[in-house]
Amino acid sequence: MTHPAGAVREATSLLGQIADTALDDDYYVFRGSDAPRTRWDGAWVAVLIVLFAIIMTAAAVQTREDRPATELERRTLAQDIEARRQVLESRQSTASELRDEVESLRASAARVDPRTEDLRLVAADVPAEGPGIVATASGSPDDVVGGRISDNDLQLLVNGLWYAGAEAIAVNGNRLGSLSSIRTAGDAITVNFRSIGPPYTVIALGDPDTLTERFSENQGGAYWEARAKSSGLRLSMTPSSEVSVPAVPAGRLDLKHATALEVDR
């Protein structure tokens, strides 16, 4: 059995040994291998500090030098934005002026001189309506020589109605103007270059009684009377209190060579 006093001494010795060996042996090896610091170590530290200071100074100087360029770019961008804003305002103002001009033209168009409308009516530029006659022409029911209606027959019919005082004429819905034509194209008759076929309906605006009477007295009426007797062509005229004709096609109104002369009135 161990004596108490010996146990105390052993415990004290063990604690001392633990305290003496608290650090790893490698620590002592490392500490023991440290070389003594020389003056070059301090010089390198100073060099590094100087280099760092130079780098920081150069960065600050570069930032300060770049600031004017940045300010110039900012001012240039602001000026560009202002110039574009002024261009936009100018264009908006121009668009507003054009809208006002269009409205003015529309208002003036609503106050057209009646004489202008009359001229458009005479030129067949607008549709027309009023009293008149409806003439229906058809060929002979018998198969006889000359029993078919030709372009010449329709031309003389239309000319006879013009001589009788017609103010507007349409053949099978095709308005006649100063540049209109009635001609044969193959086996068909064309009006304003549009093919038409029998029966041929001619609408003429004017005084119904006067138109019928004057047509029968002029060369057109005499021609058709002779054609009816020789070839069996048929022509009937029906007075009407209200007939209408369309406007002439736009292509039959365009002038390519003729120009108006200035005359003193």
Automatic annotation (TrEMBL):
Pfam families: DUF881
Highest taxon listed in the record's lineage: Bacteria
CC per GO annotation: plasma membrane
Segments passing through the bilayer: 42-61
UniProt keywords, alphabetically: Membrane, Transmembrane, Transmembrane helix
InterPro entries per record: DUF881
Similarity comment: family membership: Belongs to the UPF0749 family.
This protein's name: DUF881 domain-containing protein
The species this protein was found in: Aeromicrobium terrae
Biological classification of the source: Bacteria, Bacillati, Actinomycetota, Actinomycetes, Propionibacteriales
